[in-house]
Design a protein that fits this description.
By secondary structure, the chain is mainly alpha-helical. It contains ten helices and seven strands. The strands form three sheets. The protein has a three-stranded antiparallel beta sheet, with no helix packed on it. Strands 4-5 form a two-stranded antiparallel sheet. Strands 6-7 form a two-stranded antiparallel ribbon.
Length: 252
């Protein structure tokens, strides 16, 4: 015996004295993310509530916190990138693929996951070091060990990896993306530009000020010889040259 009624939260099947409750699988065609006979749940990953560290998820993949640092976000991105890397590990180990193909796999599939939304990060030296360690781990897998003068295999040094890779490292890509996004923000006349230039009417707490997003960008631009960053950003052509030049910057 089967009792089915539109609007019920379950379908009850009777078999002897046992009742089986089956969750309905029909999906309402009226609104996306609503299951017929169940409570309304928005589609996609649910937002994260505020926890002890007051980390709030503002989208499906980005976290912010009241300390305005990117430590937890960098950890989350590295965990996600590691999952992608180990999923592609058979390809990185394969002798059928050339080194060039493996480097392309890293740049196209793995690195974008590690640097997702990195243009908004206020990174520290430890954050950038973690990213570089992650990149070197993959490059060592791609290029493999080398033979020394005694004919024994040994791990490649960081300098040797840099010479073989011969492309901007992950820190340079991060700095370039951050400077590029800063140009859009400083040229903006809308809400995002107003929020960036707004200053709260309050005093800073005692002690050393925390590292801010704008501080990191201006420090990187000083290394490129740019002093008046917000004025320079108004010229798109000049700013584009600095975005490209930032790829050659190293860590802090």
């Amino acid at each position: 015996m089967v009792n089915c009624s539109r609007g019920l939260s379950s379908v009850t099947k009777r078999k002897g004295q046992i009742k089986f409750k089956v969750q309905p699988t029909s999906i309402s065609r009226q609104r996306q993310g609503v299951t017929r006979g169940s409570r309304r749940i928005p589609s996609g990953r649910p937002p994260t509530s505020v926890n002890k560290n007051k980390v709030t998820k503002i989208s499906h993949n980005i976290d912010i916190n009241e300390d305005a640092n990117s430590h937890e976000e960098v950890k989350r991105r590295l965990i996600a990138a590691n999952r992608c890397y180990y999923g592609l590990l058979p390809l990185f180990k394969s002798k059928l693929l050339s080194r060039k193909s493996k480097v392309t796999l890293y740049k196209v599939l793995v690195r974008p996951i590690a640097l997702y939304a990195s243009s908004t990060w206020a990174t520290t030296k430890s954050d950038e070091k973690k990213l570089e360690v992650f990149e070197r781990k993959i490059l060592r897998k791609i290029f493999g060990p080398k033979k020394n003068n005694e004919g024994e295999y040994e791990i490649r040094s960081n300098k040797n990896l840099e010479e073989l890779y011969n492309e901007p490292n992950i820190t340079g890509i991060l700095k370039s993306a951050r400077i590029g996004w800063a140009g859009h923000v400083w040229r903006s006349k809308g809400l995002i530009g107003q929020i960036t230039t707004w200053k709260p009417n309050a005093k800073r707490p005692r002690g050393r000020p925390r590292q801010r997003w704008a501080d990191r960008i201006k420090e990187d631009l000083k290394m490129l010889g740019v002093r008046n960053a917000e004025e320079t950003a108004q010229n798109r052509e000049d700013w584009r040259q600095y975005v490209v030049a930032a790829m050659g910057l190293k860590g802090l």
